[in-house]
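#struct-pred
JK: can someone run the complex with 1,6-di-O-phosphono-beta-D-fructofuranose? inputs below
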Amino acid sequence: MPMTKDPLTSRINTLSLADQLTQMENKSSAFESEVRTLPLPTIAAFTQTGTLAPVSFSPNSHTLTPDQPDIVTQKLPHLFATHQGQILKADTPLPTLTGKRIAVLFSGGPAAGGHNVIAGIKAILGPNNTLFGVKSGPKGLLAGELFEITNDALNKVKNLGGFDFLGSDRTKIKTREQYEQVKLVVKKFALNGLIIVGGDDSNTNAAFLAELLQSEGCTVIGVPKTIDGDLQAGAWLPISFGFDTATKIYAEMVGNILQDTPSSRKYWHFVKLMGRSASHVALEVALQTKPSFTLISEEVAAKQSTLGEIVTQLGKTILSRAAKGLNYGVVLIPEGVIEFIPELKTLIQTLNGLIASHETDLQILILTEKLTFIQSQLNAEQKALLMSLPEAIKQQLLLERDSHGNLQVSQIPTEQLLIEMVKIKLKELKSKAETWGEWSAKELDRIMQFKFASNSHFFGYEGRCGAPTRFDAAYTYNLGLIAGSLTLTQQTGYMAAITQLDHDWQAIALPLTGLMGVETREGESTLVIRKALVDIQSPAFSYFVSRRSQWATQDAFCNPGPIQLWGPTSESLPFTIALNHGLSSLKFRIK
Ligand code: FBP
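RT: done, structure tokens with the ligand placed:
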């Protein structure tokens, strides 16, 4: 066999090309192999001794207060009394600790960087403590599916996307039997600590488990994960991990579509973007790409815009562009918008209550029977609204909620609903164009000639498991170091967090009780970790408002391109975070 040069690495290679390709199987593409070698910088607190070492945590003189302290006192008495809302900061290095048995699980939707959280925990626990992985999230915890994590296995997934090392699920641990089951598993594996990597609902689980497991001598720590970006607490928790990677992936895809529109000059693309409730993802992608039209659910709710009003506004934007000869454009739609449109929100809340209270009766019915039954329970107005919706939407609204009582908005084709409604609205707006705009004869002619051609997209799953950006890779590794340190020092009911993202990252711990509020779930008031929605007074939203009419009327779009992992542009924060925290640049700096 002749010696050849590997085309990608310039290394001398004696393998045939076919063998080189076979070698790439099982997470060993040229990219995956290279990305594993990227360094993981650490927060200064963890290297005070010159080598990596866990640290103690002490109060930092700031507190977090829940929305309704009386309910938190009632539901989480021990935790609330112990925390007193106190935020903790990283302090001095710890002496060597041995023999601790810690487990980690992923919960909810995947987000880039999860594997680095585990790498951080494993690194800080060192060789004298044991780290267990829980397979398949909370469901696996209940089933006692734990295995010991080795450095070799972990090295294989370092800096790679996905949650596949453990798997995940959305089970809410809430019944007495489930709690007893968790206690049994904790006893069986003699666990001293449990780390839950999850979003708002999963961290709610973490708070309740922390309360429960205090008596078992097992601590529980949460790690803030969700691409939705709705797990935030001001400067203390600027963002959850996974948001940066997901939005950069979507921004690349939207940027490419935007580039296509003035090239082919005939399509309107309606792009739904993930984000179950909040519109952080849509806002971030809009700021990165500058499309013609972006819906922000929180603005829809604040203005109480009806579906009809939204469709009219969209229709006018489309025809105003057509008047200028721009027969194309891109519309961004946040996945959760359907729950923010007033009339649909009320309908969905009624449906949630009905579905929860008639769960067993509904289980045995087929869809058409379900629909008849549900209709019979609605008032005339809500019945008419439900019946006016396209079949696909109607069916999805009646589907089972997830185990936290959430409507599965990712399954609802809102982008198609809007396309269908806009198609009809355009006819009406064309027929009375002179009543809603001032047009020259040429512009009017263009409006009349305009033919609406659309494409729909849903970008969600494409962005959740990509390889983490440099930000998410470093952020998650350090969150792992913090979570591991907290469990080693027997802290419980805290969320690992990092503040000062633009300079000199600081490791802190937030009391989960201080992050809680009350929401209606399955028709009942429920104590949960608060969701941070887009603040329509925020600098990021205000900036968007100041630019959007330009983006609507001109081709002002830009294409951010693929995620950069090497070079000067690889160290950038999300635009929304930089704007909202008053930073002077997009660059993050760890130390
Ligand atoms: P988490 O809040 O659990 O991180 O999930 C976020 C998310 O990606 C949402 O954006 C989306 O609505 C949902 O997961 C879809 O979940 P599923 O994987 O169950 O389809």
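RT: quick notes.
The chain has a mean pLDDT of 94.
The pocket of 1,6-di-O-phosphono-beta-D-fructofuranose is lined by residues 108-109, 111, 199, 226-228, 274-276, 335, 409-410, 464 (CB under 6 Å).
JK: thanks, will look after standup
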